[in-house]
Amino acid sequence: MRGRLSRRRDAAADASGAARSREPLRTPTPPGEGPTYRHLGQLVGFVMRLGTREVWDDAAALPPQGEGVLVVANHVSYLDVLAVGRYLIWSGRWPRYLGKAELWNVWPIGWLGRRCRQIPIDRYTSRAKDGLANARAALEAGECVAIYPEGGRTRDPELWPQRGRTGVARLALATGVPVIPVGHWGTHEVMPGRRLTVPRVWPKRTIRVVMGDPVPLDDLIGRQDDAAALREATDRIMEAITRQVEDLRGERRPPAGVWDGTKGGRHSPS
Predict the structure, then answer these.
(1) Distance CA 183, CA 209 (A)
(2) Which residues lie below 8 Å from residue 191, measured CB to CB, with a gap of 6+?
(3) Alpha helix (H) ranges present in the chain?
């Protein structure tokens, strides 16, 4: 009996979450923003509804427009940016993604990135600090900045979040804005692997996106130049993201630790 009731509740939640993703775009265009981002969002919405089934929660932790917020998510597929971006836009915020600068050399990605005021970052170079400075300015201006803290798609063979990079923590500790963890699951079934592929749209795959409470970082704010504080903040952020993914997958994290791409295996997150 209890199992049937649980399944009914899950089915009702799925129906509600799927209905929310089918709603029209009502999020106001931010002041000073041109029409490109809105048109792109509407196009992405049409394509995602056509090719996938999206199930969202209510994004209750997301602050309203005008308040700076740092959104962090797991990264398993090329489709993640569209899936999470659409979820955030339909939830009331227009994200400014922090993405690898190489993409800005690819047409039309670079053109769209500039028109939609996305933020390029030259990873692993001395110019990376310029991208972080632009992201910090956006946060201090009350915008929503979205980042994949892993620095790229996870290399964990089981697609769990891998060890995070500390750039996201540096932004969080320098600005004090809320850090909101987002977990998603299902994009890898539409666009699997580490190379661009033709999306698998039949039968329709389900993409689920959920949001957690702000990551507790108050005790570390202002310590963005302290390596130990950066590592601690990054690990807390990744743990919060992983909890969202665990809920979606209905599994417990394997006990052997976190995948570390620099070492090619699971290790303690500390």
Answers:
(1) 6
(2) 77, 78, 79, 197, 199, 200
(3) 2-21, 36-51, 80-90, 109-115, 128-140, 167-175, 187-190, 227-249
C-alpha radius of gyration, the chain, whole number: 18
Phi and psi angles of residue 217, each rounded to the nearest 5 degrees, phi first: -130, 5
- The CATH code that applies to domain 2-21+33-263 is 3.40.1130
CA separation for the pair 137, 189 (Å, rounded): 36
CB atoms < 10 A from the CB of 45, how many?
20
Domain positions in the chain are 2-21+33-263
**Structure confidence by residue, pLDDT tens digits, 27-53:** 999 887 889 999 999 999 999 999 999
CA distance 148 to 164: 9
Number of C-alpha atoms within 13 angstroms, CB side, residue 128?
A: 12
pLDDT tens for 60-119 read 999 999 999 999 999 999 999 999 999 999 999 999 998 887 878 878 888 898 999 999
What does pTM read for this prediction? Answer: 0.91
Task: Judge contact between 228 and 163, C-beta under 8 A.
Answer: no
